[in-house]
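Tokens as discussed.
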């Protein structure tokens, strides 16, 4: 008996050891052979990611003596280096001048296109067009790999419900269902399920985790939330990216449950690897290992040990791994096995890319000319941009404009190349972008266009200095604000219509660009007011990297087209929509608040025990004294030049069993004067369950083209998993009971049917 027990214990120990060793899949023999040859120093060298500073340096340091470090076998990867020839040189040093000749990973931030810059991700998400989004990622991969890059620091899938946070621009907005679909589309676009191809690259899902929930919307700030909220509302897009095969994960700057993500073992091992089965590698964010010192987690040796023991494999720029891990092994604080496991994951990534077979696979100097900035790629950028625009208001149906109209084009963003690409487009060239004035002339050569700047983006020089770190985004004219305005008013005199291009400069959103006041800057608000006073029809073309507070502008008798930062084809795409060559079809993917005090405001809020009455204010209910609960513009909202009517919502069953799918059909009629596309949306309300349910939450959508006068029947399928949620024990389950289904053109959809899950 004792013998059997002993054997069982032994077996359990072996199983346990081999599961840490083998991770989730079979070892790759070539990698195992290489690992056996490596010294501890060489293994640590592979965990080191450097940048010589050719890209955007978002931390306070860039790497020094990079060439010497590569020769010494101290580097596993580089970023901020581009061009097939430069990358060939770097690979040659790694391959020819080091003992084992291990090639480098070459990373980059290709967030919304490489040189062909697409709209910012928040804009792209507003297209609700997964095929298009995948195509943009595929093109980005083709261009970037042509320029030598094999590893992308994208997609960013952080759920963001606080538009003060500047990086809301880099993601897909507030919703985990849509965010998961987009995460999958982007990973598939970059990796194409085949990393052996020369035009695919490794995708990195970031920033793991909860980075978008920074308190107060202040970048890099702490986050704190319950596990159930995390699992139900914030984690799904990361998981979707991993399920889609993302090979790498980037840890975030913030802490999660009080432990910075880069040193959080629950996050990087228990959840990511043990629960989700992730078997790729984890890279830190820019110096985020070192930053754990400032978080209060100890000195460089302590935080580096914390990170590697937590499950972080590669240290971006900080060199804490390089300089302290050896000592930590000597002192027994880190095991060599932990380092070997991290090194194995990085070598496996290189193996999957085919770099051992051919380290110069991405160094074909003929490719850039052939693959980058092609006419076809720019055509997709134009299509993506016009599909990302959201028509917020169309006063007296002034849009679309006639192609021979007399147009006064005004505003600081109307004839401006420096702000078209949007945040995090360091590989793009703003000078290649099409300004709005040029686009209008291209699309409507017969229009009579007069242009005047009208206002500065901001009149505040100190503010402009903060924004202009990467170039002249806010240019304050030598003319006085009054003179600028007067000039603009003069140009409006003979016009039929005023088109005012206003909003945020590129770097007013994005990393380290949080704002507490998210209105249109005062200089431009004043200009808008004066333009409206002329009595002429006014169309605002609004640019921003976030939802704005535009409560004042929504009350004016004007039309508003939200165009985000549209990318390289900005002007052409804006003109396509203004003149009706394309009928706008975008829908908001994050709610636009009435005012900053309402934040966070999102469609899937809970009812509370004291729901607000739908009519007048009532004491002791969950509401504000000075603003409604509803946002100014709801999630899923967006107009078209035509109108759509929904009727005959039907479910294929009123009772279903666990595991069953359910089908909803609805008839959508184009009742207006233009052909157009509509995003048909399905929202679900789980009426009674063990965790207080959201009032409704997105669970399906379908973008459909409908000719004027035509009716289409749209089918949406609720999968068994769509009824599930993570309960208090974090089990993913569906609880029996009644469900309500709402279908319509935005999150206020009112057509309703019910069913029961047995
Ligand atoms: C950002 C990351 C980016 C990294 C490297 C960081 O500051 O948070 O998103 O990938 O820099 O450029």
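Sequence:
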């Amino acid at each position: 008996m004792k013998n059997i027990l002993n054997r069982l214990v032994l077996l359990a120990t072996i199983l346990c050891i081999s599961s840490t060793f083998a991770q989730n899949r079979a070892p790759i023999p070539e990698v195992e052979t290489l690992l056996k040859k490596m010294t501890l120093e060489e293994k640590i060298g592979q965990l080191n990611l450097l940048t010589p500073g050719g890209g955007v340096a978002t931390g306070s340091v860039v790497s020094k003596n990079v060439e010497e470090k590569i020769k010494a076998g101290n580097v596993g990867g580089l970023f901020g280096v581009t061009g097939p020839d430069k990358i060939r040189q770097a690979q040659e040093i790694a391959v020819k001048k080091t003992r084992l000749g291990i090639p480098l990973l070459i990373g980059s931030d290709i967030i919304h296109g490489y040189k062909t810059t697409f709209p910012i991700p928040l804009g792209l998400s507003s297209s609700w067009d997964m095929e298009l989004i995948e195509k943009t990622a595929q093109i980005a991969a083709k261009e970037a790999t042509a320029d030598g890059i094999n590893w992308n620091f994208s997609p960013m899938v952080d759920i963001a419900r606080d538009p003060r946070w500047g990086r809301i621009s880099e993601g897909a907005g507030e919703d985990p269902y849509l965010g998961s679909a987009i995460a999958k589309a982007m990973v598939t676009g970059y990796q194409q399920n085949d990393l052996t191809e020369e035009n695919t690259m490794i995708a990195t899902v970031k920033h793991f985790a909860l980075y978008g929930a920074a308190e107060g919307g202040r970048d890099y700030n702490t986050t704190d939330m319950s596990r159930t909220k995390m699992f139900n509302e914030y984690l799904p897009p990361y998981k979707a990216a991993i399920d889609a095969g993302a090979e790498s994960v980037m840890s975030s700057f913030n802490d999660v449950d009080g432990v910075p993500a880069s040193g959080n073992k629950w996050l990087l091992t228990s959840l990511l690897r043990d629960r989700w089965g992730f078997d790729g590698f984890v890279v830190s964010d820019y110096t985020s290992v070192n930053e754990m010192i400032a978080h209060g987690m100890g000195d460089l040796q302590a935080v580096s040990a914390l990170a590697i023991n937590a499950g972080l494999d590669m240290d971006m720029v900080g060199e804490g791994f390089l300089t302290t891990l050896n000592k930590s092994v000597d002192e027994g604080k880190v095991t060599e096995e932990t380092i070997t496991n991290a090194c194995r994951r990085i070598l496996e990534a290189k193996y999957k890319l085919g770099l051992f077979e051919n380290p110069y696979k991405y160094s074909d100097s003929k490719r850039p000319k052939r693959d980058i900035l092609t006419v076809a790629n720019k055509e997709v950028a134009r299509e993506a941009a016009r599909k990302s625009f959201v028509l917020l208001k169309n006063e007296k149906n002034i849009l679309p404009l006639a192609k021979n109209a007399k147009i006064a084009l005004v505003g600081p963003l109307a004839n401006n190349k420096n702000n078209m690409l949007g945040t995090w487009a360091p590989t793009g060239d703003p000078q290649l972008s099409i300004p709005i004035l040029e686009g209008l002339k291209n699309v409507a050569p017969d229009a009579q266009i007069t242009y005047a700047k009208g206002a500065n983006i901001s009149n505040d020089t100190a503010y402009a200095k903060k924004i202009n770190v990467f170039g002249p985004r806010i240019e304050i004219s030598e003319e006085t604000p009054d003179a600028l305005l007067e000039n603009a008013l003069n140009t409006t005199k003979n016009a039929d219509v005023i088109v005012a291009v206003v909003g945020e400069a590129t770097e007013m959103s994005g990393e380290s660009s949080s704002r507490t006041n998210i209105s249109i800057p005062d200089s431009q608000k004043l200009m808008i007011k004066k333009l409206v006073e002329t009595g002429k029809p006014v169309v605002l073309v609004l640019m921003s990297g976030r939802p704005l507070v535009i409560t004042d502008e929504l009350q004016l008798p004007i039309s508003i087209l939200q165009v985000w930062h549209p990318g390289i084809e900005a002007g052409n795409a804006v003109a396509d929509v203004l003149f009706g060559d394309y009928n706008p079809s975008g829908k908001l993917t994050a709610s636009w608040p009435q005012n900053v005090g309402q934040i966070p405001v999102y469609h899937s809020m809970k009812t509370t025990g004291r729901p607000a009455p739908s009519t007048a204010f009532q004491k002791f209910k969950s509401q504000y004294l000075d603003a409604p609960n509803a946002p100014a513009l709801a999630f899923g909202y967006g107009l078209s030049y035509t109108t759509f009517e929904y009727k005959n919502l039907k479910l294929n069953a009123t009772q279903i069993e666990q595991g069953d799918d359910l089908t909803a059909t609805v008839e959508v009629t184009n009742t207006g004067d233009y052909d157009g596309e509509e995003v048909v949306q399905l929202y679900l309300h789980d009426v009674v369950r063990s965790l207080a349910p959201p009032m409704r939450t997105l669970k399906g959508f379908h973008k459909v083209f409908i000719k004027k006068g035509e009716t289409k029947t749209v089918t949406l399928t609720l999968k068994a998993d769509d009824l599930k949620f993570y309960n208090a024990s974090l089990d993913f389950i569906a609880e029996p009971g009644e469900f309500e289904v709402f279908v319509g053109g935005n999150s206020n959809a009112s057509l309703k049917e019910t069913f029961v899950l047995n």
